[in-house]
Design a protein that fits this description.
By secondary structure, the chain is of the alpha/beta class. The protein contains six helices and 13 strands. Helix 5 links the parallel strand 10 and strand 11. It starts with a strand and ends with a helix. The protein binds 1-O-pyrophosphono-5-O-phosphono-alpha-D-ribofuranose (PRP) and uracil. Uracil (URA) binds next to helix 6.
Length: 209
């Protein structure tokens, strides 16, 4: 079963409070999402494998450590996921970035893929899907389906705020995908919004309605 990691670092929790606050405007919202994504990237990379190599310092020969694992790819779910990409790239600047675009069919309410572009070496990479919100879980499950269909073997899902409903759906549909969140909220409302949540992440990031 997928593990769920809640990043309760004080800096993440502090910034998340202002991300949630409806008085926070677009510019500040965008900056805060970027900062929290960086802090979350620090936590999510904690278990990256390292290996020992030998180097020569100006003083002596030393055995020191470098990253040894697979290469990373970050995949934002369009559109709101874009707001988290630069923050993660600050810590993993060599990562490749794929994109998955989903819209919700107005009749079925199910997410439909309208765009997908991934790095060529899908099977060789560790993927981190980023999206600020995990609500019903429909978008996340569809994005994971899309990566797996194209050959991805290692996937993590990272978001700011999750509803219990969304976490459950990923755990049922994709038990191999661990979930990394800044906060686990109470529930969904009748319109599929997370309560207390932060409202519509895409609209708040891009200043649209
Ligand atoms: C938001 C959010 C997630 C999705 C979560 O995107 O960024 O992708 O909703 O909801 P779910 O878990 O119920 O699928 P939205 O569909 O509003 O699109 P946008 O990013 O273009 O605003
Ligand atoms: N998508 C959002 O942007 N916000 C929510 O609360 C739920 C889905």
């Amino acid at each position: 079963m997928s593990k769920v990691y809640v990043f309760d670092h004080p800096l993440i929790q502090h910034k998340l409070t202002y991300i949630r606050d409806k008085k926070t405007g677009t510019k500040e919202f965008r900056e805060l999402v970027d900062e929290v994504a960086t802090l979350m990237a620090f936590e999510i990379t904690r278990d990256m494998p390292i290996e020992e190599i030998e180097i020569e310092t100006p003083v002596t020969i030393a055995k020191t450590k470098v990253l040894s694992g697979k290469k990373i790819a970050i995949v934002p779910i369009l559109r709101a996921g874009i707001g988290m990409v630069d923050g993660v790239l600050k810590l993993i600047p060599a990562a490749k970035v794929g994109h998955i675009g989903l819209y919700r069919d107005p009749e079925t309410l199910k997410p439909v893929e309208y765009y997908a572009k991934l790095p060529a070496d899908v099977e060789e990479r560790d993927f981190i899907i980023v999206d600020p919100m995990l609500a019903t879980g429909g978008s996340a499950v569809e994005a994971i389906n899309s990566l797996k269909k194209r050959g991805a073997k290692s996937i993590k899902f990272m978001c700011l705020i999750a509803a219990p409903e969304g976490v459950k759906v990923i755990q049922e549909e994709h038990p191999d995908v661990d979930i990394y969140i800044a906060a686990l909220d109470e529930k969904l409302d009748d319109h599929g919004y997370i309560v207390p949540g932060l409202g519509d992440a895409g609209d708040r990031l891009f200043g649209t309605k």
